Protein 1
Amino acid sequence: MNRRYRKTIIAGNWKMNKTATEGKVLLDEIKASVGKAKWCEIVACVPAVDIPMAVKALKDSRIAVGAQNLHYEPSGAYTGEISASMLKDLGVKYVIIGHSERRQYFGETDVTVNKKVHAALEAGLHPIVCVGESLEQREMGITNDLISVQVKSAICGVPADKIRRIVFAYEPIWAIGTGKTATSEQANEVCEHIRTIIRKQFGARTARAVTIQYGGSMNAKNAHDLLAQPDVDGGLIGGASLKSADFVTIVNAANQE
């Protein structure tokens, strides 16, 4: 982390877990435990049906609400989809885009990720753009090549003055929900590579200001070491975000120099 230049963000991705009733209990526990926690931004990315509850429950706290997906069109005949303006109107601040599970199960592509990034920025949301490689791709030695394509595709056409509003999350597919975690050094190497891509395209000042998270089984035990890395600016937390004690431990791990 480097709080001198950029914001540290700890975001919980609940995925398809927690009813609104269950979610309120969890949010109340987290809210009571993190206090003011001024050292980082805290985000709860909840299922769409939980968003109104989350906005209400977190109204007087420092915890922001995030969504897990959106459609790139502003409106239309897209049954079951949710637009950026709908999320913004509810009080959502962040939205996850391009998670590997969306790519694997729902046909998300680099092209649709780019369209969604533009839609989110246009509505005033902060996209959390996920990138990452499979185990086979890592073993082939093409991690950086793949990450370069994903990052460049995601930000294609985005003006320089909006890049700082994008959060990137490096999530190696082989570490998501498997209990496996990239070493601190492996995580930092890829986060540093993402920053290099941004620096080459938009300059050093912009690259220094962009928040780059690590996802992929960050938990209460490994968070401190991962967050101690210079280019790891937070975490996109999956399973551990569903347990208030674990999530709060990760938030507290961000309180280090």
Note: The radius of gyration is 17 Å.
Protein 2
Amino acid sequence: MTDVPSVRGAEVGRRIGVGLMYGLFRPRVLGAWRVPAAGPVIFAVNHSHNIDGPMVMGVAPRPTHFLIKKEAFIGPLDPFLTGIGQIEVDRHSTDRTAISRALGVLEQGGVLGIFPEGTRGQGDFASIRAGLAYFAVRGGAPVVPVAVLGSSDRPGRLVKALPPLRSRVDVVFGDPFEAGDGSGRRTRKALDEATERIQKQLTAHLENARRLTGR
């Protein structure tokens, strides 16, 4: 059995994230009450900034274990990210260790964070990979859409792909929903249908979040 990421480590990561994010930026968190207080949950987060993961980790009401590309696990970041309960994943292969660890998080009633677009891009949920549907259906976990709306189109950035320091970053949590059709089927067709269902829900949430925040 693959080791399950540390919940205590993820809680430490959440506290570090709170300090960093509120120290560097001005987060505004909306809808955190929608996150189920217990049981397995998947955060589906749009991805346009390098700070999206740390931001959600810091402001979420529960400790979160993110699937993070293995390229980030270099030098001192490797033991640090592992220590705060994050999951290293090889995006270019079927990473069975990462899959097992992620399912372990859900089996123990934890929160799994996923960037369904797979990589940092426009952050508009235009391209969603099937992995999210697999974890949602196999892990029996509701999906909570999370929109991180920053200031990437504004001047004043000191570091590429980061919002300007002390700028407002909105994090909007949506209503949890079931990705599957209730049958528990994990066939290719069922996962394709679940992925389509997820994409519609996430896109609708992002549109609502933009209206709500004026972003």
Note: The domain at 7-213 is CATH 3.40.1130.10 (Glycerol-3-phosphate (1)-acyltransferase).
Protein 3
Amino acid sequence: MTIQEMKIGDSASTVKTIGESDVYLFAGITGDLNPAHTDEVSASQTPFGGRIAHGILSAGLISAVLGMKLPGPGTIYLGQELKFTKPVHIGDTVTATATVSEIVAEKNIVKLETICTNQNGDVVVKGMATVMPPKH
């Protein structure tokens, strides 16, 4: 979508169940092998009681919404503010949603409220994205 096609309140989402392989692949790609994500014995000693997914893995689903749905292919991701509010456990289903909250047409900039929830409706990540939609 171009900026001319977008309006305040437009929204799009994507859904993914976070599997064990997702966590291990993400750990391998990033080099973040923190035991909280990769070692059940160690992670069982944390307040979470077991392994959790990397927070930024859930936040990465926001990128999928922006790049594939709203605004979609050709979008340039300029910035993201994030707050991780609850852990995501292996097996959780995360819904990432982006909603247009501000349009600066003269600069071709759009700000979107971003939120990730789990299968219980609990907010696990929230923030604000700044993007440049495709020009055509």
Note: The helical segments are 20-30, 35-38, 40-43, 55-68.
Protein 4
Amino acid sequence: MLAKRIIPCLDIKDGQTVKGINFLGLREVGDPVDLGRLYAQQGADELVYLDISATFEGRRTFAELVTRIAENINIPFTVGGGIASVDDAGRLLGAGADKVTVNSAAVRNPQLISDIASKYGNQFVVVAIDAKQVDGQWRVTTHGGRKFSDRELFSWAREAQERGAGEILFTSMDHDGTKNGYPCDTFARLSEMLSIPIIASGGAGTIQHIADVLTRGKADAALAASIFHYGEIPIPTLKAALHQANIPIRL
């Protein structure tokens, strides 16, 4: 069995790492390069950097920050936020990112997934999906959770895979930042339905939450922010506990 991955997520706004609850109430938690370097030293398997205001404000993720990250960090990292074209993706990959994640622009223009995958390879494309439950259905949102689309989580995830996504990063807006656990049943359904890796995001508050989403939720990786940014669960402690629970993990 492949090792499960632990992925700290750094949401970037105006060049600083920020964190909120349900995508709102953002506050700064540190320098993205310094935090990334710390997490790499602690044993993180990968990092995800998301410029969460890029799409909303009509800006592109700064390739300059990606270059700084690549120069200082020795583990794979994914970058997203405001990627609306193959050229945007190429600029970030050229600056040193290992993968790019597309979200709002892909919902608006699904061909974007196909185009990036065709030029750079499926392994470079992560499709991020932010969804919220409305009347029992997972509705896909865009623009940092500010707008509802007409898409539904499971059908959109399937289409993303068919178009060339190499991974799906699903964030439950209902759980984001709440530290109440991940919606494991939803992740299990996604994992059973798709053949590509699923990264679970939104709701980590305890070691048990992460263990649950990697086992009961069948996710391939667990992404979290608050518990790492505020030092609540050090990565070495988390990984040791997961290993003790017989969850395959890189120590």
Note: The mean pLDDT is 90.
